[in-house]
Design goal:
The radius of gyration is 23 Å and the shape is globular. Helix 3 crosses helix 9 and helix 13 packs across helix 18. It is an all-alpha fold. 74% of the residues lie in helices and 1% in strands.
């Protein structure tokens, strides 16, 4: 066996790493099932606690939370018809009708097993694809890396939003914020306005806490006023494990969801909701009884649940091999690794191969323990839905303040966090997506550095970006990703006009 693979496996199976995985899985299931919370917000709240932990324990905790959060979203979708995560929206279409007719346990068991199978399939793909892709990426030069990062940002801006203009505006705001601090090549101060606190730039983790947590807290505050801030779900739902006939029924839709979810997870910016609904649609088309979909069938639960958990492993592939996050959660994971001095990308497999495999095997254990914790603690977890938000939200707000301060032991970062919270609220009100801004904060420095290095080496000759086949390939993909929304919108208008004429 490759010594790096063996070392990575051993690090992921250390008692401390496994305990971190179990805690992360439990927290993820809890966060995922609470309507109004998100996996991103949950990871950001926990993130400051990982700064004092070993990297292997930190990544085990965060991956457990990631896998658990994706699974937990289905619990509230089935029991309350309120998806805990956007990815669980498709699950509610058949899960809640099953719960309404007294089959909540069967629906929950199906979602748990399907989620586990999707996550396990994506782990296999991660294990075999990531090292090979990293080997290929090692051949990239500065112009290739610039084009790659640029492509990643254009994909996020175009595919993750309904409005390309608003997506590009959000990304531009993020790039402007990244320029605050010191010039990465010359070291000169930029846009600091004489404030020494800005010399080191805006810490992206502080910005993330503000962008995600503050709008969530405000939404939940409004919810407390309107609805009283608590939910009530039935905790007596009978047998959880699916029967043998249920296993046979869910085989095909779970396989469809696992394959589609992994593939879509690899595409930066596509995300869980897209994978879940595409899988649901394909499962319906391939079913012998498509008329049962929407009325409460386990096929309609198995497909989207397998898909949204398969997205997790798929999203880790571009994160680990190319340094490009597949979704907001992996963007935050990149930040967590950077804090520990570990830069995701092809060099991770070259310089820290043992830790790269630690991440891969930690993801395997995250899926295993999420299954175990979900099956053994489901009745306890469901009681969390009755926790008053008037208690939960102030606790989360306090953790956000402590987390922002602990990054650099500075109250200035707390003020920055609140500033980005106000920015996030403004963008929410204007319906401007936050994800492109987040990706610009994470990738902006790389984008500028690779651009500056390329132009310095070529003495300002921009044709350097068109001489490498890798660079040309990624630039062509960038053009397609920007143009695609316009093509789709034009087709939609034509189809609408044709229907109107008929």
């Amino acid at each position: 066996m490759n010594p790096d693979i063996y070392q990575g496996f051993m690090q992921s199976t250390l008692p401390t790493s496994l305990i971190g995985t179990v805690i992360g899985s439990f927290l993820g299931l809890t966060v995922g099932m609470i309507p109004g919370m998100t996996i991103s917000a949950g990871i950001i709240i926990v993130l400051p606690l990982t700064f004092v932990l070993e990297p292997a324990i930190s990544i085990s905790l965060l991956l457990g939370l990631y896998a658990g959060g994706m699974m937990g979203g289905s619990f509230s979708a089935i029991l309350l018809n309120i998806p805990g995560t956007p990815s669980a929206s498709a699950t509610a279409m058949d899960g809640h009708p099953m719960a309404s007719r007294g089959e909540a346990g069967r629906a929950l068991g199906t979602s748990i097993i399907a989620s586990f199978s999707g996550g396990l399939f994506s782990f296999v793909c991660l294990y075999f694809i990531a090292p090979s892709l990293a080997e290929l990426a090692l051949q990239f030069r500065a112009p290739d890396l610039f084009s790659l990062v640029f492509f990643g940002m254009t994909v996020i801006c175009s595919f993750a939003t309904k409005s390309l203009i608003k997506g590009l505006l959000s990304g531009t705001i993020g790039l402007i914020i990244v320029t605050v601090g010191q010039d990465p090549i010359m070291g000169n101060p930029r846009f600091t306005f004489g404030d020494p606190n800005l010399l080191s730039g805006i810490h992206f983790l502080t910005a993330m806490i503000g962008l995600f947590a503050i709008p969530q807290l405000m939404d939940n505050l409004i919810d407390i006023v309107k609805r009283g801030g608590s939910f009530h779900a039935e905790s007596h739902f009978g047998k959880i494990m699916p029967s043998l006939s249920d296993f046979k029924t869910m085989r095909v839709p779970a396989a469809i969801g696992a394959f589609i979810g992994t593939f879509i997870g690899i595409l930066p910016g596509a995300g869980g909701p897209i994978a879940a609904f595409i899988s649901y649609d394909y499962a319906k088309k391939s079913s012998a009884h498509p008329e049962n979909f929407g009325k409460g069938t386990i096929e309609g639960i198995a497909a989207p649940e397998a898909a949204n958990n398969a997205v997790t492993g798929g999203a880790l592939i571009p994160m680990m091999t190319l340094g490009i996050p597949g979704d907001p959660v992996t963007a935050i994971l990149i930040g967590a690794l950077l804090v520990h001095g570990l830069a995701p990308g092809p060099l991770l497999f070259m310089e820290q191969a043992d830790f790269a495999y630690t991440i891969i095997f930690s993801f395997f254990w995250a899926n295993i323990f999420t299954l175990v914790v979900a099956l053994s603690s489901l009745r306890l977890l469901v009681k969390v839905l009755a926790t008053p938000k008037s208690i939960l939200m102030p606790t989360i707000a306090l953790l956000c303040i402590i987390g922002s301060y602990s990054l650099r032991n500075s109250f200035f970062d707390v003020y920055v966090m609140f500033f980005f919270g106000l920015l996030g609220l403004s963008m929410q009100w204007l319906q401007i997506p936050v994800v492109p801004l987040l990706l610009a904060l994470v990738l902006g420095k790389q984008l500028e550095e690779h651009l500056r290095v390329s132009l310095t080496a070529s003495r300002g000759d921009v044709t350097v970006f068109f001489t490498s086949p890798f660079s040309v390939f990624f630039l062509c993909l960038s053009v397609v990703s920007i143009a695609w929304p316009f093509i789709v919108e034009k087709r939609r208008k034509r189809a609408f006009a044709g229907q109107a004429q008929q």
